[in-house]
Structure formats: structure tokens, C-alpha cells
Design goal:
The protein has 99 residues and is an all-alpha fold. It has 2 helices and no strands. It has a domain of 64 residues. 59% of the residues lie in helices and 0% in strands. The longest helix has 33 residues.
């Protein structure tokens, strides 16, 4: 058993951006940032949508039937769905719409 220290990793002698094996290819850094942004917005919209669905189920379970509240919730859920479609189209590679 050797008591010599383990070899340490050497720092690269050239900047990481110069390594062709790490190149992003045809996708730009901005496209990656946009995809991350869209993903995070979609996550937030999902949480809001699930919360509204929870309230709808609680109202139904407690037999609370308020037509105004029902319309507001349906409208909010429709808006969330529309934004989700917009995000998907805006970040799709084949879509002419780019965010």
C-alpha cells in the first residue's frame, strides 16, 4: 500500500470554449437559456394550475357551487393552458415563433 498522494487533475491549458468536444453545435447559448426560462415558467404555470384544480375539487367536495367562482377558475385554467401552448410553440425548433 502506497502512501503517496493521489494524482491531482490538471487544469486545462486553454479556455473551455476552445474545446471542440464541448461545443454546443448548432444550438446557441441563447437557445439554451430560453429553453431553461420556458421550462421554469411552465413549472410555475403547472403549480398554479394544480392549485386551481385543487380548489375546484375542494369546492365540489364541500358542495360549494358559486357560478362566478367556477367561471373565474375555468378562465384562469384556460389562460394557463394557452400560455403553455405559447411557450411550447415559442421554444420549438420547427416553429417560426421565437420568444
Amino acid at each position: 500500500m502506497s502512501l503517496e498522494p493521489a494524482p491531482t487533475a490538471r487544469a486545462p491549458t486553454r479556455p473551455l470554449l476552445e474545446f471542440p468536444e464541448l461545443a454546443l453545435g448548432a444550438t446557441s447559448l441563447n437557445d439554451h437559456r430560453m429553453a431553461i426560462f420556458a421550462h421554469e415558467v411552465a413549472n410555475s404555470l403547472s403549480v398554479i394550475g394544480f392549485s386551481l384544480e385543487y380548489f375546484k375539487s375542494e369546492f365540489k367536495a364541500r358542495q360549494i357551487d358559486d357560478p362566478v367562482v367556477n367561471r373565474v377558475m375555468q378562465s384562469a385554467l384556460a389562460e394557463i393552458a394557452g400560455l403553455g401552448i405559447f411557450l411550447h410553440k415559442g421554444t420549438s425548433k420547427n416553429s417560426p415563433l421565437k420568444l
